[in-house]
Each structure stands twice: as C-alpha cells, then as structure tokens.
Amino acid sequence: MIPAIVYAIPAFVLLVLVEALSFRFLPDDDERGYELRDTATSMSMGAGSQVIGLPWKSVTLLVYAALYTLAPWHLAASSAWTWVLLFFADDLAYYVFHRAHHRVRVLWASHVVHHSSVRFNLSTALRQSWTTAFTGLPFWMPLALVGIPPWMIFLQQSFSLVYQFFLHTERVDKLWRPVEFVLNTPSHHRVHHGSNDLYLDRNYGGILIVWDRLFRSFEPEGERVVYGLTKNIDTYNPVRVAFHEFGAAWNDVRSARRWRDRAGHLFGPPGWAPGSPSAEG
C-alpha cells in the first residue's frame, strides 16, 4: 500500500528549491536559511524514512483492519460526520503521539531526528525518523477500533503531514489572530523546534493548536528561536543522525546499577538521571 503522502514528494522537493532560492534573492539576516550539507541530510533522512516505512505500512494496515473488524459498529465513509470525527480524532491522536515522543526517552530517541537541525526551513520537514513508523502504530489504533475504515485513517494522516510540511518555514510571519488561535502555524511550530528553555516541550499540535491550549502545552512565539537540540550532535551523517540517541540511551542503561534506573533511562523523559527532580517526583 503506497501512502498518499508519497505522491506529494515531488512537490515538496520543488518547494524546498523555491524557498532556498528565495533566500538567495531575498536574504534576511534574522533567518538562517539553507546550508547544502544540512539540506542533503534532511533529504536523506526523508528518503530513508519512506523506504523503511513503506513495508511497515502493510503491517499497520493489517492491525487497523483487524481492529476495524472487531469494532462494534462501522462508520460510513459516505457520511460527512465520519470525516468530521476522523479529523478531530486523528489530530488528537497526533497530539498524544507527539507529546509522548518528547516525554518518553525511548520514543524521543526516534523523534529526536526531526529536531536535530540547527536550521528551520522546508527541508527540515523532510528530516524524518527511520524508526517512528514502528513507534507510532499504537496511537492511531483506537480510531480503527471505533469503526473508522483504515483507508480513511491513512488518508487523513497524509493530509495532516502535507499540512505540517508548510509549517517548517521562517519566511511566514504570524498570521491573522483568529487563525493563530485555532490552527498550528509556522510561528507556533518555530517555537516547537526551539531549544530555548522557554520553548522546550511546547506546541505539539498537528493541524490544530487547540489541544496545546487545552492541555497547557502552548507557548506563543516571543524571543528569537534557537533551533536544534539542547546538546547538538554536530554531524551530517544520516546514520548517526538516525541512531545517536538510541546509542546514548543504551550506554546509560548499561552503566546503571539498578533496574529502576535502567527503566528510568528508557521510559523517563529525555535528560532523566537518578536523583534528578523528575526521578524523585
């Protein structure tokens, strides 16, 4: 099964080229723009994620189909209300998935790839993990279990990813206030990619920003965003970008003396250490 998002890849690449040229002809000293090695790494990560993730889609489809057959009712694709439910359910599932991948280290080890660039442009949207396809499956399973057809779930996931592609830009300032209040925007997503203390673990939304407002994870863009990680990895090697945090977590687990600490290194938040406030709380 080929995800709908695959058909958008040529347009993504073209738009990356257009944005890169815009920095050449309309430079802005406040924006970091593009760097060839960084962009090549992002493209490599995106290509790898599709190659690895495509076969896994068959497994995902089988799981969704099995749950769909167990659902007490099957919602009709011909009903507009099914699509409305799907839109909000998918976006909430993405919020939970995204927040979990920032707060659980073994999941963060996968998602950290997307935050590993010190630049923020449309190519950053393509810097995708090679392992998130495996860690993301459980978060959308409830949608199939309530009777939403699996093909609809896949389609809505693709719509969400296409929308999120356009969030990765510094070329768009804040939008009309009502739009900023309801929808995720480039301004909100710049905050999410910031390594500033104020911006850490904020603005997890996919299409909507209302979940962040409801669950108190929202932060508006104020001070200038510093992109990247709190400890940047300083490499353009795709393999190191893909797996560096898994290696770091494994080293911490091996050096831990207690099983409780080993579990903390895997299932605690990134930066967890024995004796830290998060370990004690």
TrEMBL record:
Membrane-spanning ranges: 6-26, 47-68, 80-97
Domain Fatty acid hydroxylase: start-end pairs: 83-216
Topology in the lipid bilayer: Multi-pass membrane protein
Matches recorded under Pfam families: FA_hydroxylase
Highest taxon above the source species: Bacteria
Localization terms from the record: Endomembrane system
Principal subcellular localization: membrane
Keywords attached to this entry: Lipid metabolism, Membrane, Oxidoreductase, Transmembrane, Transmembrane helix
Name of the molecule in the record: C-5 sterol desaturase
A single GO cellular-component term on record: membrane
